[in-house]
Structures are given as C-alpha cells and as structure tokens.
Write a structure and sequence with these properties.
The protein folds into 2 domains: about 100-320, Rossmann fold; about 325-465, Helix Hairpins (Orthogonal Bundle). About 60% of the residues lie in helices and about 10% in strands. It has helices spanning about 1-10, 10-25, 35-60, 70-90, 110-120, 160-165, 175-180, 210-220, 235-245, 265-280, 295-315, 325-390, 400-425, 430-465; strands spanning about 100-105, 135-140, 145-150, 155-160, 180-190, 195-200, 225-230, 250-255, 290. It has a 9-stranded mixed beta sheet with strand order 4-3-5-2-6-1-7-8-9. Bound molecules: guanosine-5'-triphosphate and magnesium ion.
C-alpha cells in the first residue's frame, strides 16, 4: 500500500509531508506561557501611557502650549515608543543595556549567511526566501545549542538545532510562521555578543507582507542597522525610500554582498558599488561605512575582519538606552513647564488683583460722592420738616425767620440735587466694566493655577512610583 502511494508522490510532496510531520511534533511539545511578571509589566505600562496622555491633554486644554506641539506625536515618540521598548527589554532581557544591531535588506542578500559566517552559526539560508522570523543572537551560555521559539502570546518553547532548520520559508513551502510566532532567539558565547545583540530579519519586499512586518517591528528597538545590498543587482527605489522614511536617524552601514559571485569581476563589482554609493548620496542618506561580503574564503575573512572592527568601534561609542529614563525625562520636562506656567499665572493673577483693588478704590470713591450727595438731600428734607414743625405749625402765614429758613433749606436742597447729578457724571462706567473683566480673569487664572497644581501632583505621583 505504502509503495503504491509512494509511486504517486513527487519529491516535493514527500518533503512537504515530512515538514508537516516534523512541525506537528514540534507543536506537540510543551510550551512555557508568558510570565505573570511580564503580563503585569504590560498592564502597568498601559496604565502609565493612559496617565501621561491624560496629563498632556490637560496641559493642552489650558491652551498654553505652542501650536506646533502635538499631543499625539509626543505620546507616540516620547511615551508609547520608550514604553514599548521597555516591555520588549523585559520580555527579551538580552536587549537591556546592549547595543542592538539589526541586519536588514532585500530578500536573499546574504543577511543570514553573513551572521552565520561571523558568529559560526547555522541559521537556515537558502537560494529562495529563507528567514521567516526575526532571529536574535545574544550572549548566553548555550552548551546544547538550543533556541527559543516565541509565539504570538509570548509562550516560549525550546527547540533544538534540527528543529531550527524547519524555520526556513523555502523548506517549509512558505509556511506562514509569522502568523503563529513572534521571533526566535538563540544564545551564544561569542565574545562580540557580550555587550551587543544581533537581529537577523526576514528579507524586505517579500510577497508575504506578514514576514516583512516582523522586520518593521524590530526597527523600533534597534540602535544600528547593517543594510545588505546584492551588488550585482544594485539598490532599488523602494529600499532607498525605506531607509529614508523608516530608519530615520539611526546609523546605517551598507554591506555589499555577492562581491565575488560567479560572473562578477573585481572592477565590475567596484563600479557597481560606486553607483550604489552615488544613489545613496543623491538621496541624502548618510552612510556610516561600507563593508563587503562574499562566498569565497578570502572574502569571508576580509568580512570578518571589517565587521569585527566596525562593531568593536560601535560598542565603544555606545550609550545604553534606558527607555524608562526617557519617560522620566519627559515627565520632568512637563513638570518644569507646569511649574513655570503656574509661576507666570500666579504673577499675572497678583498683578491683576492689585489692579482690581486700585480700580475698586476709584469706583468706591466715585460712589461715595453720590452717597454723600444723597445723604445731604436727606438732611435738607429733615431740616425743612423741623422748620415746618417747630416754626410754622401754628402760624397763618409763614413769615420772617421761618420763611427765610425754609427758603434757605429749599435752595440748599437744589444744590444737593445738583451735586448728585455731578457725582453720577463722575462715575466712569468703562472702569466698572474693566472691574468686571478683571474679576473674571482673576477667577480664570485661579482656576488655571488649581488645575496646574493638580497636574503637578499627578506628575509627582508617577515620579514617586518610579523612585520606589
Ligand atoms: N555567491 C554568493 N552567495 C551568497 C552570498 N551571500 C549569500 N549567498 C547565498 O545566497 C542565498 C541567500 O542567502 P541568505 O543568507 O539566505 O540571504 P538572506 O538575505 O538571509 O535571505 P532572506 O532571509 O530570505 O531575506 C544563499 O543560498 C546563500 O548561500 C555571497 O556573498 N556570495
Ligand atoms: Mg535570512
């Protein structure tokens, strides 16, 4: 029966089946779930992101930020990115305090071959698309040469060298590994890894965008890029755009591969490299250095020497990135801004309070004249009533002294009414309006100061959490 079936199977069918069998048995092995500590860290970072975003929104709502400052871009670059990097460092401790170097470039440009060549590894390479997952090589004692396969849920499975060979797109008939797994990581005692970690990435511009996606993800967490260019094929516009737009200001080195491939001559590859360099210069891309990689022994020895020297000098200049320090610096900068805004608002409020007092005194002065004019009218009337009661009550005609007194009372009354009119005239209504505006402004400033106070105390709470 088996023989009969075998007659109908092509070599490719048999390879396909043996891949499935091996892969299935790999999937049946045990897997260690993501640790609680990492899950808690993720939750804490999410909460922190939310708190800092809220602080930024509240500062922005005070309408005192420069129009060019965007809360969204601060959140993205100064909060989300470092916190994502921090989570990555918790998940992958070998990224912490290490210079992280990524090998990137178009498909089949020799990235994995170069990593294997320098570090003496045996990651799968192929004439077809090979690397399916970002592959980290980091410093660790690894006598059994095992690797960690990490799935999308953060679960970790140990795989041996033979199982590692399954993770080749060509040998797996383009199995969609990137849908199930996040990355592979392998430890090595190579001395160059003591202060740096390397990432081999899936080739870009593959027909399967999911594989290239893992390369995009790696970009955020690496410090230096070695970009591979098959010098027989030059560099495409797509690659130039990618380097310009995605890599930003991270240092980029170019590794020209296939420098000694069949059909090439030394002068031919030299010319091709000059053309590529020219293209990069014209695109305004600064390249830190150019290296060469080939298949022959001499080319590989030269590569090892050049690559070794380059990474050694990179290691010397490197300052370890601490993403939490970046977040703390942002919070301290925000706190400084809040305190200076609060100082300005307090100063302005005190000035306005002084103004208000001065204007208030003016208004009180003007109304006091009106008041005294009114009370003098009242006095005149009382005088008249007194005169009428005491001196005119029992007389038929009002004569002599009583008449004169009444007359003078009436004329004083007229002049008091006149002073009321003048006092009203002296009241400046625009000053009253100014008084109202100033009072409203003082209230607004008082509200801003209180809000800044609350923001500052929230910033302090977060900073204190970092201290403890
Ligand atoms: N002649 C020659 N062959 C090379 C060179 N670099 C790589 N190769 C071969 O080219 C093929 C692709 O090499 P890989 O190292 O798998 O290339 P890669 O860039 O990692 O490929 P992906 O992971 O698919 O993006 C393999 O068959 C290598 O043996 C080189 O400099 N010269
Ligand atoms: Mg590869």
């Amino acid at each position: 029966m088996n023989d009969e079936l075998n007659q109908h199977l092509t070599d490719s069918d048999i390879q396909h089946l043996s891949f499935i069998k091996a892969f299935q048995s790999l999937l049946n092995e045990s897997i260690e779930p993501e640790s609680k500590e990492i899950r808690d860290t993720k939750l804490a970072c999410e909460a922190l992101k939310f708190q800092i975003r809220d602080i930024l929104e509240r500062i922005n709502a005070l309408d005192v930020l420069n129009d060019n400052i965007s809360v969204i871009s601060i959140c993205e670059h100064d909060v989300d990115l470092p916190l994502r990097r921090y989570i990555e460092q918790c998940k992958k401790p070998w990224l912490k305090d290490k210079l992280t170097i990524a090998l990137m470039g178009h498909l089949k440009t020799g990235k994995t071959s170069a990593m294997n060549c320098y570090f003496g590894e045996d990651f799968p390479t192929s004439t077809e698309e090979a690397t399916a997952l970002a592959t980290y090589l980091y410093y660790s004692n690894n006598p059994n040469q095992t690797a960690s396969l990490v799935d999308k849920e953060g679960g970790v499975q140990k795989i041996n060298s033979e199982q590692l060979q399954l993770f080749s797109l060509e040998k797996s008939f383009n199995f969609p590994f990137a849908r199930m797994f996040s990355y592979i990581a392998k430890g090595s005692k190579h001395p160059a890894l003591s202060d740096m970690t390397f990432i081999d990435t899936p080739g870009l511009f593959s027909s399967n965008s999911e594989h290239a996606y893992t390369t995009y993800k790696v970009l955020d967490y690496c410090d230096v890029i070695f970009w591979f260019v098959d010098c027989r094929k030059s560099i495409s516009e797509k690659e130039i755009t990618f380097i310009k737009e995605q890599i930003g200001n991270k240092p980029v080195y170019i590794i020209f591969s296939f420098v000694d491939a069949r059909g090439t001559t030394e002068s031919g590859t030299h010319k091709a490299q000059e053309v590529i360099k020219q293209k990069l210069t014209e695109a305004g891309i600064a390249i830190q250095g150019y290296l060469q990689f080939g298949r022959k022994n001499s080319a590989q020895e030269r590569f090892k020497k050049e690559f070794g020297e380059t990474i050694e000098s990179l290691g010397k200049d490197h300052q370890a990135v601490n993403p939490i320090h970046e977040v703390i610096s942002l919070l301290l900068a925000l706190q400084e801004l809040v305190l200076s805004m609060q100082q300005d608002a307090t100063k302005m409020m005190n000035e306005q309070k002084n103004n208000l007092e001065e204007i208030g005194n003016n208004i009180k002065g003007a109304t006091r004249s009106v008041q005294s004019a009114f009370s003098s009218v009242g006095d005149r009337f009382s005088n008249m009533i007194d005169t009428l009661d005491n001196r005119c009550a029992n007389v038929t005609f009002c004569t002599g002294g009583a008449y004169n007194t009444l007359r003078s009372n009436v004329s004083q009354l007229a002049s008091s009414l006149q002073s009321i009119a003048e006092a009203w005239d002296n009241v400046d209504y625009s000053i009253i309006a100014q008084y109202g505006t100033l009072s409203a402004n003082i209230e607004r400033l008082d509200d801003i100061i209180k809000r800044l106070d609350a923001i500052n105390s929230d910033i302090n709470n977060i900073l204190n959490k970092f201290k403890s």
